[in-house]
Amino acid sequence: MQSLGFAYAMEPVLRKLYPEQKEFSDRLKLHMNYFNTQPYLASFILGAVVGIEQDRVEGRNAVTDVQGLKTALMAPLGALGDSFFWGSLKPMAAVITVALVVGGIWWAPLFFLLFYNLWHIGLRMSLLFVGYRSRGDAVALMSRYRFTGWARQFKLISLVVLGGIVGALPVWRPEFKPEFRLPGIQLAVLGMAFTIILVAVLRRGGSPLKLMLALAVFCLVLAMAGVV
Amino acid sequence: MSAFDTSWMILTIVGVATAGGLIGLDRTAVGQFMVSQPICAASLAGWMLGDAATGLLVGALLELIWLLDMPVGTFVPADSTVAAVFAAAIAILGSTGGVRLSHVGLSILLSIVLAPITMLADHMVREFNARIALRVQADSATVMDSGLAGAHLSGLWPFFFKSFFVYLVFIPLGIIAVRLFARMPDQYHRAMELYVKLLPLLGVALVARKLSIRTFDQFLFGGFIVALAAALVFPASMPMIILLTAVGGLLGANYLDQRA
Predict the structure, then answer these.
(1) Residues in chain A within 8 Å Cβ distance of B124
(2) Partner-chain contact B112 A212, CB within 8 Å
(3) Max CA separation in chain A (angstroms)
(4) What is the domain extent for residue B47?
(5) Same domain, A222 and A148
(6) What ipTM did this prediction achieve?
(7) Is the minimum CB–CB distance between B32 and chain A shorter than 8 Å?
(8) What would the pLDDT profile of A46-62 be if each residue is shown by its tens digit?
(9) Is the dihedral of CA B70, A120, A81, A46 positive or negative?
C-alpha cells in the first residue's frame, strides 16, 4: 500500500510538472511500482524524487533512474528508521511516560505525545527538504543526522530509566505498588530480583502473552495459598 | 437493567467502537502520531467513558508490555490499541459502583484473547489493501481519471472496520465477564489486584530484554541504584528521580561513546 501512497503524494507535483496527460499518467504509473520503507524516512526519498523529476523536466538531468534510486534507498532507510524511531525514540518516550504515571503524574501521556512528535514531525519535515536539496544523497543524510548515535543514546537512557522505575518502587502510586509489608529497600530489591527472573525467562523463549498468562496463574496460586 | 439502560449501554459501546476505530487509524494508516499507543488510547477511551484515571492505569500497564512488539518486515504484531481500548472500556462499563483494581486486572487478562484475533484481522486487511494497489496499477483508466486519491483513501476503511467490529463483538462479552467476576470469591479479586501490581515489572522485563543483550545490564542496575537512593536517602518526587536517572544515562552513554 506504500506504493499507492507514494504515488498519491507525488500526484500534485507530477500534475504541475507534466501538463500533458499522457506523460503525467506514465510518470504517475512509474511511482506506483513496489515501494516499502520506514514511513517517516519516506519523506527523504519523496523529497529526492520530487527534485529529480523537476531536474528531468527542466532538462538538467534526464537520465537518472528514479525507480533505481527508490529501490536503493528504501531498504537501508527502512532499517535505519525502524531502529531509530520504533527501536529507540518511541521506547524512550514511553518508558519515561510510564515512569511518570507510576509516580502519579496524570498528564504524562501529553508529555509522551509532545516529546515524540517534536522529533517525529520535525524530522519528517526537515528530511523532505534535505532529500530535495541533496537529490537523495545518503551521505548528506548521514552527515546531518546522527541516527545511529542517537539510537544508542536513547536505548541506554531507556534502560537507565527502566532501572529507575524499579528503584523508585517505594514511591510508586498505591494503585501500582505491591502491598508487601517490607521496608522500601527490601521492596525495591525484591522487585528488581523478580524483574531479572522475568528477563531470564524471556531469554529462554517466553513471549509477552505466555508470561502474562503465567503471571496471572502465579497470582492466583499465591491468593489461593493465602499469601496475599 | 431497564430498557433505557440497555439502549444507553448499546449506544455507549457503539460510541467506544467508533472512537476506538478512529484512534486505531493512527497505528499505520494515518499520521502515526502515537495517539494509538496504549497509554494514550486507553486514557482517551477512559476519558470518553467518564473515568480517565482507570484508562490511564490500563494504558500505563499495557504500554511497556506491547511497546517493542514492532511491525518489522512482514511481521504483523498484535493490535495493542484494540487491547488497550477494550480493557479500559470493559473495566469501566463492567463495573457497577466504581472500578475495583481487580476488575482492571481481569480486563487486561481478557485483552490477551484479542491478540491472535487482531493479528489475523490485520493480516487480512493488509492483503485486501495490497489488492487495491494492484488493481490501481493494472487499471490505467483510474490513473487517467484521477481516481488515485479515492483508491488510496479507500484503504482507510478496512483498518477502521477491523477495529470497529472487534470492539462491537468483544466489548459486550468482556462486560459480561467483568460482571460475573464481580460475584466471585474474594481470593480471585486479591489475585487480580496482585496481577495489576506485578504487571509493571513484567513490562520493565520485556523492554529491558529487547533493549539489552545482557540479563544483568549495567545501565539497568545503575538506574535502579540512583533511583533507590533518590527515593530513600534524599526523598525526591518521581519527576526528579526520572530526571536524575535520565541525566545519569545520558552521561553514561556519552562516556561510553568517548571511550569508544
Answers:
(1) none
(2) yes
(3) 82
(4) 3-211
(5) no
(6) 0.92
(7) yes
(8) 999 999 999 988 888 77
(9) positive
